[in-house]
Amino acid sequence: MLTPAMKLADAGRAKIDARTTETLTHPQARAYADLYFARVDSGKPLARADFPSRPLLPFMPHICLFEPIDEGADWRLRLVGTAICRRYGVDATGFTVSQLYPPEVAQKQIAGYRETAATRGMHVTKGRIAAAGNDFWDVEFCNLAIEPPQGSIRWIATGVFVLDGT
Predict the structure, then answer these.
(1) How far apart are CA 28 and CA 24, in angstroms?
(2) Where are the domains of the chain?
(3) How much helix, strand and coil, in percent to the nearest 5, is found in the chain?
(4) Residues in Cβ contact with 65 at an 8 Å cutoff, skipping those fewer than 6 apart
(5) How far apart are CA 14 and CA 8, in angstroms?
(6) 114-142: b or e for each residue (b if 16 or more CB lie within 10 Å)?
(7) Helix ranges, the chain (H)
(8) Rounded to an integer, what distance in angstroms lies between the CA atom of residue 92 and that of residue 131?
(9) Do residues 122 and 33 make contact, with C-beta atoms less than 8 angstroms apart?
(10) Could you confirm whether domain 4-162 is CATH 3.40.1180.10?
């Protein structure tokens, strides 16, 4: 049995085979994006203060909140949903992207978060991931830029939806 520290150390050897796509296929991912764009269109974009809130409750188990560090040079996990913790078997709250992924993967993730934050858009990635001592599973990531509690760089609220229906 791996301890939480061992699982997080193993996460640094995460394997990801993913690609950017324009479409969401998981029903909850689509509903999450619909809520986001409805708020943007209404002139009240989602902000850090909205996590958690009643409209987001169905999605909270699948959401990770990333806070920019040093103007987006790295990103710290400020919240990890219970479905994600259950899937990994550990809570990675407080860890940075550079701690969780090998350098080449971390830099790609960091660049994607910076771009999403700058454009206030959505970035969708689908692929296979194995980390924290777990086997590969098919995942859809829906990265959305949210307004920060302070500062100028938007945070990222990532919905992590496993494509096996869970």
Answers:
(1) 9
(2) 4-162
(3) 35, 30, 35
(4) 48, 51, 77, 78, 79, 146, 155, 156, 157, 158
(5) 10
(6) bebbeeeebbbbbbebbbbbbeeeebbbb
(7) 4-11, 27-41, 82-88, 97-100, 103-119
(8) 12
(9) yes
(10) no
Per residue of the chain (166 residues), give pLDDT as tens.
Answer: 344 444 555 555 556 666 777 889 999 999 999 999 999 999 999 999 999 899 999 999 999 999 999 999 999 999 999 998 888 788 989 999 998 888 888 899 999 999 999 988 899 988 876 665 666 678 899 999 999 988 778 999 999 998 875 4
Phi first, then psi, for residue 160 (nearest 5°) are: -115, 110
Structure tokens at 121: 């858009």
Peptide bond into 27 cis (omega under 30): no
Closest CA to 12 of 129, 100, 128: 100
Could you tell me the two tokens for 24? 């969401």
Q: Which two tokens stand for residue 49?
A: 């203060």
Tokens found for residue 4 = 């939480």
Q: What pTM value is reported for the model?
A: 0.85
